[in-house]
Design goal:
The protein is mainly alpha-helical and 243 residues long. It contains twelve helices and two strands. The longest helix has 25 residues.
């Protein structure tokens, strides 16, 4: 059975999708908002209170367990062979990325130079790899975990570094939804570790927001890139001046 922590995290996401806050839960349970926050943080609710919160989110407890089990069965990495196969056919790669972003088959065919027959063939290949499940009427169920990542230094990450990275940074980052910040300073190893953990939390939040927004129509969403990087580093022109 799924663990309590994962069940409560899934419940919290269900509440968020319904637009419900800690304050709403507090009123329902006749508790203070601080108590509710603490209980969610410590993953500590009685079964009676869990059932009440489930009712607020319009979800059964058994459904939560199934949702968590499904999430744990999802794939967080491709194999080397799978990444190489995607790169050999850029249409296949485009379809795979669309599927990751919760596009339906009709939306893919409308947006890209891919026929319906080609798209179905690509989807069948993705299903064989365990990346999706094809449902009736060619509906798609994604089997990629919310923390899905390309293989470190693998074919797709190398491809992205060599092509996408230069295009991504070729911007003044002044348009709506864009932001670029560069901060430099001297930090201890402990402070670097703290910031690395915060960046990992931000990356998980990005993945969860993407999953939540997958229920919206494609026209309401935007392809978005988030680059996170931090390391001990000095500008080469200054490094060359060192003794």
């Amino acid at each position: 059975m799924a663990q309590r922590k994962e069940i409560i995290d899934m419940l919290k996401r269900s509440l968020k999708q319904k637009g419900l806050t800690y304050a709403d839960v507090a009123r329902q349970l006749h508790l203070s908002e601080a108590s509710v926050k603490r209980n969610f943080s410590h993953k500590n609710f009685s079964l009676d209170r869990l059932e009440l919160i489930c009712n607020m989110a319009s979800v059964d407890f058994s459904d939560l367990v199934q949702m968590v089990d499904d999430e744990q069965a999802k794939i967080s990495r491709l194999t080397l062979e799978q990444e190489e196969e995607l790169l050999r056919d850029l249409k296949f790669l485009a379809v795979a990325i669309c599927v990751q972003n919760a596009w339906e088959m009709e939306e893919i065919v409308q947006h890209y130079d891919v026929t319906e027959a080609q798209c179905i063939a690509y989807l069948i290949r993705l299903e064989r790899h365990g990346l999706i499940r094809l449902l009736p009427n060619n509906r798609i169920r994604r089997m990629l975990a919310h923390d899905f990542r390309w293989l470190p230094q693998g074919p797709l990450e190398t491809f992205l570094e060599s092509t996408v990275q230069s295009e991504f940074m070729d911007s003044h980052f002044k348009s709506p939804g864009e932001l670029r910040m560069y901060i430099t300073g001297m930090l201890s190893r402990q402070s670097l570790d703290i910031l690395n953990k915060k960046l990992e939390v931000l990356a998980r939040e990005f993945a969860l927001l993407q999953q939540d927004d997958s229920r919206l129509p494609v026209k309401s969403r935007f392809n978005s890139g988030l680059m996170l990087a931090i390391r001990p580093w000095e500008l080469s022109v200054f490094e060359a001046l060192e003794k």
